[in-house]
C-alpha cells in the first residue's frame, strides 16, 4: 500500500519531530574504516569494543566451523539442533565467568526475555506472586522481558539503591527479581553490583545482571575480560541467586548471548525459557567461532589497555574544550555526548558525516526527552590519530554551534 495508509500521519509526525529512524548501508566489514552508502567513513558507532568482528582469526574459525557443522542447525536445541560446538561453548563460557552452567541463546534480546520470563515462574500450585524491580535506564530487552513475564513491575530511579531497598521491603511478592544493566547502554556508567547483590541477599531476591557492554571489556585483577563481576571482584559461586547475561555480538565480535548461573537455574531455563526452546539453534559455526573469540578475549589484555588509553584520551581531549555539550561521566568505551534537543543532535551527526565521521545520534524514546546525544563508542581497533580527529572535529563543531 502506498501513501495515505494507516501509518502515513504517524510517520509524518515522527519526521516533523526529527524522530524518524532510518538505516545506512555498510558495504565493508565492521571496523573503524567503513564504506557507507558508497562513501568512506571513520566510524565511532559499533559495539565491537575489542576489534574482533572482522579479525582474521575469527573469520578462519567461522569457516572451519562451517566445514565441520555446515551452516544451519536444522532444528531447535531440544529437538536435534544442539551441536558439539554449542555445548563446548556453554561449558567454556560458564567456566570463564565462574558459574556452574550456561545456556547459549541466539541474541541478547532473546536471552533477557527468556531468562526473565522463566525466573518469575516456578511457583505452580502455590499462591505465589512475582515482582521484578528494574532500573529506569535498563535496556529495552529487559523491559520487554518484564512485560512478557506478567510479573508486577517496579521501576526505581537510575542507580537509586535507597529507593530499591524501600520497594523490596514493601513488596509482598514471594518471588523477587532485580534486573539491571551492568554497563548502561546509552550512558556507559556502571551499576554498583556489590551493593545490589547485598540488597538482593537481604531480601531473598534474585539478581539478573545484563553485562552486554561489560563482557570482554571489563576484567578483574588478572584482566582476562570476564566482565563486570570480575571487575568488582565478585565470586559468583557465593551467590546462588545471581544470574549473569553476557552478549556475544559486541566485544566477542560474533553474535548470540549466554545466560550463566547455577546448574539448577540453567536446568530450569531449559524447561521454561521459550526464546531458547522454540527457536532454531543458532548456526553452530558461530559457536565454533565464539570458542576462539573467548580465547582472544582472555588473551586480550593489550587490546583492553589500548582501548582504555583511547577512552582517557577522548575524555581529556574533549572535556576542557566543551562549553554547551556535556560528556557523560563514563569510564567505559561508551562515551555519550549530551546535546539536548533532537534536531540539534541530528544536525551535529550530519555535520560529522559531512566531515567523514560516523557517530550516531540517539533520541527519545531510546533516551529520556531532552537528552538527545551523540553516542560515541570506542574500539581497540581505533588508532590514537583517529580519536584525535574525532576530538578536533567535535570541538570545532561545538564552537560553530
Ligand atoms: N542488553 C543490552 C544492555 C544491550 O545494549 C543489548 C544490545 N543493544 C542487548 C541486551 C541485546 O543484545 P543483542 O544485540 O545480542 O540482542
UniProtKB/TrEMBL annotation:
Binding site for pyridoxal 5'-phosphate: 108-109, 185, 213, 247
Domain Aminotransferase class I/classII large: 41-394
Enzyme class: transferase
Stretches of the chain forming a coiled coil according to its record: none
Pathways involved: Cofactor biosynthesis; biotin biosynthesis
Entry's Gene Ontology molecular function annotations: 8-amino-7-oxononanoate synthase activity; pyridoxal phosphate binding
Entry EC no(s): 2.3.1.47
Catalysed reaction equations from the record: 6-carboxyhexanoyl-[ACP] + L-alanine + H(+) = (8S)-8-amino-7-oxononanoate + holo-[ACP] + CO2
One record GO biological process: biotin biosynthetic process
N6-(pyridoxal phosphate)lysine PTM positions: 250
Residues bound to substrate: 21, 139, 366
Entry-linked NCBIfam families: bioF
Family in the record: Belongs to the class-II pyridoxal-phosphate-dependent aminotransferase family. BioF subfamily.
Assembly and binders: Homodimer.
Role noted for this protein: Catalyzes the decarboxylative condensation of pimeloyl-[acyl-carrier protein] and L-alanine to produce 8-amino-7-oxononanoate (AON), [acyl-carrier protein], and carbon dioxide.
Name this protein carries in UniProt: 8-amino-7-oxononanoate synthase
Gene this chain is encoded by: bioF
